[in-house]
Amino acid sequence: MEFFKELQQIFPKDRVTTNETILEHHSVDESHHTASRPDVVVFPINREEVSEIMKIANKYVAPVIPFGLGSSLEGHVIPYHSGISVDFSLMNQVIEVHEKDLLVKVQPGVTRTQLNKELKKYGLFFPVDPGADATIGGMAATNASGTTSVRYGTMKDQVRDLEVVTADGTILHTGNLAAKSSSGYNLNSLFVGSEGTLGLFTEITLKVYGIPECTMAARAVFPSTEDAVNAVVSVLQAGIPIARSELVDARSIEQVNQYNGTSYKIAPTIFLEFHGNEAGLNQDVGFTKELFSDHDCQEFIFETDSKAVHQLWEARHNLAYAFIHGTPGKKMMTTDVVVPISELAGAIHDARLKLNELGIDGALLGHVGDGNYHAILMIDKNNPSEVEIADHFNKHIVEYALACGGTCTGEHGVGIGKKKYQKLEHGEAFDLMLLIKKTMDPKCLLNPDKIFDKY
Questions:
Q1: Which of 6, 78, 174, 260 has the fewest CB atoms within 10 Å, measured from its CB?
Q2: What percent of the chain is helix, strand and coil (3-state, nearest 5)?
Q3: Alpha-carbon distance 115 to 437, whole Å?
Q4: Does the keyword Oxidoreductase apply (predicted)?
Q5: What CATH fold (topology level) applies to the domain 1-210?
Q6: What is the C-alpha separation between 455 and 442, in angstroms, rounded?
Q7: Dihedral pair phi/psi, residue 65, rounded to 5°
Q8: What CATH architecture does domain 328-413 belong to?
Q9: What is the pTM of this model?
């Protein structure tokens, strides 16, 4: 590997390695997709070193795959063509906080919880919460969202500027610090969600928000999924500014109880959170309770104590791990689609019928406020029949979503798992996206085989 020898001339021995354990760590993410090891792992500490990596890769036509924490769910960081895995864990500095502008500049290896710990000193917080303590670079690369997107939006709504290293080693910026611009193409939106296929992020400037004066969380139980979804739709139509709105089905609640030792009623449940001042929140919660009662809400319990609020959301965030630890010997397959809000109840009902028809043990949950829902399946990867059935289910819910004007993924991203649906979803626009990719990365160095087939 000539590129390895050249990397060794630039990086100290502890930051460029072919150690077997480290290669193995960079061969997987948290998805069910097949592992594949890189040739070498490099740990840069600044933009100049990232640029040098790309120049060497360009010289030797070596694939380059960015790596954050490996928490991705569609095989994004798996190097199927070997090459160089660029681990950003040492680029983990909060560079500067512009508290008066409500902005923060970070390196890509900063994690979500690390960022919020620093912002808390200024009375600020960063709202995007995908559940996992992912890196900001990885979240930007997949246009992550999560439980708070109903109020604050997704990553693309937070990114004000990106510093990007392109395929030939050029360092460029996609935006600025201004609140809006009518100048030129919106390159922020081009790069956010590009999954490392157009460039490597070395700095990210984000919008942040004031910590709300008061936070209230609630748990509402319904007789059916349809009742639960329609109840949330009525709240959105009424203009109540909920901060989080999560549906957890009965099978999920059963697993939560088993894992966390809770005794929640086993029925479709909505987890809610409200941000604001105490007087306003009391009105919002009261109005929400009235609207929910119109949809046969069986229980409505809300919390204001910060510890109780944390425990409530911890149950939701730990759901995937509840299934993993509760089903030894099996691998989690999780997928997500998005449909228009008006189609969500039907989509989830259809997904449950399909799970029952196929005889799969699975859970359905989602961000009801934005039409994004997830399926969690536990499968034996060594059983071809189980893998085939799970793939069939995934295909079914994707095609349902696309048929009603939705998308094959709302936050997990495309990676390797959703690549086969891109042409079906985007039509002629897919060819334009591929043209952009080939123009910016003519040698297909950047995360090859993700979103597009390697060319």
A1: 260
A2: 40, 20, 40
A3: 31
A4: yes
A5: 3.30.465
A6: 9
A7: -125, 115
A8: 2-Layer Sandwich (3.30)
A9: 0.94
